[in-house]
Design goal:
five-stranded antiparallel beta sheet; 3% helix; mainly beta; single chain; globular
Length: 136
């Protein structure tokens, strides 16, 4: 098999693209062991569109059981989870995950917004124990 990122990684949406205003939204859970692939690495990718106002903090949460969630410790991140404002919009932010939990999700917390902004997040899981990674 020819080396290919397609065979080693899979992107899963956690926060669908949406106009976000004040409040907190928990993203959809991403199972790093989906289809028994047992991904050994993950990365949070945040895509920001136009932000007109407010502070849009995106964090990464982890869980052993898909029930009890906690924010990933800074020591288990490569880079920093972004807080996006109107001066840092229309960008892609990447944050590596070094932890060992099975489940991940992105969380959006917006404050100080009147009209808000468009943000989405996905989790790229990769380096599965079994290749190629399933794309079903």
């Amino acid at each position: 098999m020819k080396p290919s990122l397609y065979n080693l990684a899979r992107a899963k949406i956690s926060l669908a693209t949406a106009l976000r205003t004040n409040g907190t939204v928990n993203g959809t859970t991403v199972d790093l062991h989906e289809n028994k692939d047992s991904s050994r690495s993950a990365m949070l990718i945040v895509l920001s569109g136009t932000i007109t106002d407010g502070s849009h903090a995106i964090t990464l949460q982890e869980s052993d059981n898909n029930s009890a969630w906690s924010t990933v410790a800074a020591a288990d991140l490569q880079g920093s989870a972004p807080t996006i404002t109107d001066t840092a919009d229309d960008r892609i932010y990447e944050v590596g995950y070094l932890g060992a939990k099975r489940y991940l999700r992105a969380v959006s917390t917006v404050s100080g917004a009147t009209t808000g902004g468009t943000v989405s997040a996905l989790i790229l899981r990769g380096f599965p124990r079994r290749t190629p990674i399933s794309h079903t």
